[in-house]
Amino acid sequence: MNTAGIELEVIKNQIASLCAFSLGQEKILSLEPNFSPLILKRENARIKEALACTIKYSSMPLSGLKDITLLLEQAKKGMTLTPLDFVAVIQHIRATRGIVSYMTSVEEKVEELSDLVDSLVIFKKQQEELETCFNDAGEILDGASPELRAIRRSLLKIDGEIQIETNRFMQKHAASMIDNIVTTRNNRVVVLVKSSDKNSFGGFIHGESASGQTAYVEPSNFVEINNRKQSLLYQEQEEIEKICWKCSEIVEGIAQDCLNNLETCAVLDALFAKAHWGKKEDACVAELTTDKSIYLKNTRHPLIDRKHVVENTYRILDPIRVLLITGPNTGGKTVSLKCIGLAVLLTYCGIPVCAEEAMIPFFDHVFIDIGDDQSVLQSLSTFSAHLSKLADVSQNATSDSLVLLDELGSGTDPKEGESLAIAILNDLRDKGCLVVATTHYGRLKAYGKRHDDILVSSVQFDVEKLIPTYHFVEGLTGQSNAFDIARRYNLKESIIKSAEFLKNQQKTEEDILIEKLEKQAVENQQLKEKLLEQQAIQSKMFKELQNEKEVFERNKEKNIEKAKQEAETYLQMVKEEAQEILSEMRQKQDTNKYHEVLEVKNKLGLLDEEEEIEEEEKEFKVGDTIEIKQSHQIAKIVAVNKNQVTLNLNGITVKSSKDKIKHTHKQIAKPKKVFSMRTEKIQSFKLECNLIGLRVEEALPILQKYMDDAKFNHMATVRIIHGDGTGALRKAVHEYLKSDRDVVNYRLGAPNEGSTGATVVTLRG
């Protein structure tokens, strides 16, 4: 199939550039539309899952992948690999494990991707063995073998001896040396001395400088040390070769599985490159349908700049079998044709479609005749090239085929071209093909209007600017606009009038009827656009009103809350003033006035139910029954100290300031005897009690109930969270626990248990 006119290859190149390694790129570049329903469904499901994962979790980590096919084939043949080969194998195994790790983080059900990833073989043991021998730079590590470690230790020791001998030599023969330079020649340590003194030290001369002024000398006392080092270096190399041979055997054992992994990784790489491209282009995965209908909502051509591209919706729904796109040359018809064709071919290559929503049917083949394929070598004119393709279509197209035809019938005499185009469309309609064709011929427009299975549409042209708008209009035929364009270019009006007269003379009744229908259709389209515009304005106004309503409701709640706060503040102020007046009257012994004010205060709801004149006059003393203002708990005073009192609250000793308590006639409730037995444990008992933010007097009743529940549920250990703060709450909790006979012991939490902000309690079994 020749897809050059559709520009599929350009898209493939874009996607290939997003691949992680060469094998993935090869998969993309060799892509061809696949017409097998089974394969198409599988690829469609795969790209749908890959796109969803890419959008939510970012792309699959594939950056460490490389094509190691050659070295794996060498390993299979028993060849010894190089250290860098082993590094490549290690990186491949790491990348494979990274893919598996990525998939474990995916929460959604992705059956197709899971099947691919599940086929990967993970070589954890082999990876560890290879990583023991080589670092990422390909260097052999000391731990590769005990022998290598021993050899390298000996080499380090000899290097130390050489350093000592070198220092001794430099001190003794400083006058003969050149800048105290020590270097190596053929892995042997030598010194740089004056040529005149080169024979003064015994040993060997390894060479001289180009000027002849200096010589590289291995003194006699260096020879033995160098010999020992050379021997160790040979041993080291032999041991490295043994290690490489041993590791090559490891790779040989996993080579075939690694080759299989490579193939799977290439498939995943290509798949996620497609998904990456789809995410970047804001594309969707088309739904595959069996009803031979094409639906592309707000689709666009991916090769046109996003800033300038025009989105269009294309619908070829039953019973339509032919979409005929009309309009002048260079009017944008071909862009629409390519857009539809590219969407189909992308789907058949498992690539997302640049549309908001897409439905593509199953085809057995796509026939394409787009562009000018005239050839000097083949002696083909434009018309002949078109005919060659049309002959192929007429012979091979079936009812399950899609046919894309650009400028049908062009390239020859207009009348003959129109007749041939109509005949071709009749033949394709008889076959049951789905056809998308472009034309600027008037007879084809009329032909299309006469048949219910042909949808005649157009691409709008801006006559004022003389440019196509690329807006696809369904159901309207396009005009050539030749006379309007001629006027814009200031062609003599008399010539234009004459041309219009000649055109009108050639009109048939059918042409006149079609023009009237088209004019009516244009008016209907304009009316539709106005209605849509008004609808958009109304929708905007409705949204604004909704927003205003929401703002009003929010402000309403705020205003009510504000009013409540102001009322409470005012009420508190009145209460305080009334209290001051009462106190003043008590001091003046003005009982009558005092009772009058008290009555007013009671009417205002400022007097507590238990409040009495006598109680206001009382001082707090030991034995008094009081009520804690905030929690309304009843307790007895056991000690008084200036502004603070000590209370007995249900057997628990707590301290409180005087302003937080008041006298009361209420009695301390006696604990009720409960004779019924609980037969079920408390559901969902929590292993911790959080008291943070509570005062001591508020927290202790909660703690007491929690400890009762803990005992009932036979808890062995619980945790009380009290925070640090001033330490008062922690102290009160510990005092309570100390008094509880069922508490075996308690301690502050460990760092992972809340530290000093929590207490861990062990209960009696």
UniProtKB/TrEMBL annotation:
GO biological process: mismatch repair; negative regulation of DNA recombination; rescue of stalled ribosome
Organism domain of life: Bacteria
Residue span(s) of domain Smr: 689-764
Gene3D superfamilies for the chain: 3.30.1370.110, P-loop containing nucleotide triphosphate hydrolases
Keywords, alphabetical: ATP-binding, Coiled coil, DNA-binding, Endonuclease, Hydrolase, Nuclease, Nucleotide-binding, RNA-binding, rRNA-binding
InterPro entries, sorted: DNA_mismatch_repair_MutS_C, DNA_mismatch_repair_MutS_core, DNA_mismatch_repair_MutS_sf, MutS, MutS2, P-loop_NTPase, Smr_dom, Smr_dom_sf
Transmembrane helix listed as a keyword: no
Residues annotated as binding ATP: G327, P328, N329, T330, G331, G332, K333, T334
Family of this protein: Belongs to the DNA mismatch repair MutS family. MutS2 subfamily.
Full protein name: Endonuclease MutS2
Gene it is expressed from: mutS2
